[in-house]
Write a structure and sequence with these properties.
By secondary structure, this protein is α/β, with parallel strands linked by helices. About 25% of the residues lie in helices and about 35% in strands. The longest helix has 16 residues.
């Protein structure tokens, strides 16, 4: 991804103030999906004007009930899904950890890192150094030569997170990242988050509920298609 990426969908809205240190800003995001019923087609609104900002060195939790639109909003933020209207602006690089790991079953962990390193335009040396650090920090180096379809759920979750962390992005978007983690890995995860925060990186974490609330700078709740500060 380029140093600065910008997406505008629908009516033009005011752009975020970069002097405030904002790395990611979404304004007025709307999204509806078509549902077919026996009576015909129906538009189901999911997001009805969601706003979200992520400042430099900030860790934000995005919470909401199942079906509230959390994953839909995150997919729009990363450009995986088009919004019906609203604006999204990103300043810097982004890493994305989806709720369901997107991996190639026949590739090993090492091969995944090599593949993603190339996609991130990392040099082979930088990729290897980052890979070794992530193996050590998340504790799964012994699975380096193991194919993805032979990994346990917890180790697959580590690989999923590691691929998002690989290029050390300015903004990290995580959708239920610690599902399947044991307690030790859960603690390591928060160590990684704290280290990133100390270097001015920003993290957005989706969860059905927030544990360890004190670890977040802000909690944002998605309800009725809109975002609310908790």
């Amino acid at each position: 991804m380029s140093a600065t990426a910008h997406a505008s969908i629908g009516p033009a809205l005011a752009q975020p103030d970069h002097t405030s240190g904002s790395l990611l800003a979404a304004q007025g995001v709307e999204k509806s999906f078509t549902r077919w019923r026996w009576v015909g087609r129906r538009r189901l609104p999911v997001l009805t004007g969601a706003d979200l900002t992520l400042s430099r060195g900030e860790v934000v939790g995005l919470v909401g009930e199942n079906g509230s639109g959390k994953t839909t909003l995150m997919r729009i933020l990363v450009g995986d899904l088009a919004a019906d209207s609203g604006t999204v602006e990103l300043s810097g690089t982004m890493g994305y950890c989806p709720q369901q790991p997107v991996v190639y079953p026949r590739l090993t962990c090492d091969e995944h890192f090599e593949l993603f390193g190339g996609a991130y335009q990392m040099s082979p040396t930088s990729e290897r150094e980052a890979r070794r650090a992530l193996y050590d920090e998340l504790g799964f180096e012994r699975f380096a030569s193991t194919r993805a379809d032979q990994l346990s759920g917890g180790t697959l979750a580590k690989l999923n997170l590691g691929l998002a962390l690989l290029p050390d992005p300015d903004v990290l978007l995580l959708d239920e990242p610690y599902a399947g983690f044991d307690w030790d890995t859960y603690q390591k995860f928060w160590g990684l988050v704290e280290e990133r925060r100390s270097r001015g990186r920003s993290v957005l974490i989706i969860s059905h509920f927030v544990a360890d609330e004190q670890r977040f700078d802000r909690i944002v709740k998605l309800r009725d298609g809109r975002t609310w500060s908790v």
